[in-house]
Amino acid sequence: MNNLLSEALKVTHYDFDPDGTSAVDVGWVDMRDFHNFMVSFFRTVGTSALTYKILGNAQSNGGGTDVVIKTKTLTGVQPDAVGDYSFLEATIDEIIAAGKAAGIDVRYVSANLTFATGTDEAVVTYIRGGAKKPQGSLTADAIA
User: What is the pLDDT of residues 15-39, one digit of tens each?
Assistant: First the structure.
């Protein structure tokens, strides 16, 4: 059994500043060795509406056909103030099923976000859990 969260979870952060209003993939990650995927959206700048999805793809760079795994409908309530946050998650079973329904062997996932205003920004955090073969720390510092 893992005693530390860093041994049980793979956590990564992304600065999301798309400078536009088109849908943007945040970052593609491999789900081969994990059972769960959760995305945390944390607003840092702006107040516009957000469209929020998890996409799947067979290619590590998202270059193949995208499959929508899950969409979060934020009608009536939006994370539209600095400090607001929202979560969206999927299991490996949901990821595989969505891929099979589309005829694609999905292995990689990404959050896909769209702001209504191009100057909005956020921090997006990925949390992958249920490691099939946990070996030491899965989460590490990233310092440039």
Answer: 999 999 999 999 999 999 999 999 9
CATH class of 10-129: mainly beta
Among the ranges given (8-17, 68-77, 117-126), the one the predictor scored with the smallest mean pLDDT: 68-77
Cβ pair 107, 67 in contact under 8 A: no
Residue pair 135/10 in contact by the 8 Å Cβ criterion? no
- Domain spans, the chain: 10-129
Quickly list DSSP for 16-56: E--SSSS-EE---EE-TT-SEEEEEEEEEE----EEEEEEE
pLDDT single digits (tens) 110-138? 999 999 999 999 999 999 999 887 677 88
